[in-house]
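Worked example 2:
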Amino acid sequence: MMLAKYSETMSGANIDYYEQNAEEFFASTVMVDMATLHSRFLAKIPPGGHILDAGCGSGRDAKAFSKLGFRVTAFDGAPSLARLASQHLGQNVSVRKFADIDEVACYDGVWACASLLHLPLCAVPDAIGRLWIALKPGGCLYFSFKYGTGERHRNGRTFTDADEAIVLNWLGSLAGLAKREIWNTKDQRPERAEEW
């Protein structure tokens, strides 16, 4: 019971942050060039496949996938960001949380770029499991975390960081996992030096 309350508090604080800073966050992320990461992910998705952008933020990635001919469903936990992403993408972006994901075998790919990291550490395995179940057999799940370990609070947001050992632990419970790739990258925003 205490863990559930803790999770709701952390998630609520992050949603409040994005509600208060939606315009600024949108403007600072919508034009970031993610083509290198996109191509690595999209190489594993069939042409015209259905992609879930889970925690889509500005809708930048969902729009890129849509322009390349993929069918995209997107959601975000912050209503103001979902509204901005809907406008940018030109389609509805629903307001959902990872705990709301209950689809089974619906998507060819799931893209959770810099979104799961706002969950508390104890909630990440459940969210990954839900995303995994939402994938069709043979589908591809992408997620990213800032490199490190543990939880931290920075500039009004809470983050969970992960390294290879943590990720491998999370992946260990996924039934039918055929292949995994883990790699490190620098932040795609030129002014940031963080590692992902």
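Confidence is low (pLDDT under 50) at residues 1-10. The longest strand covers residues 135-143.
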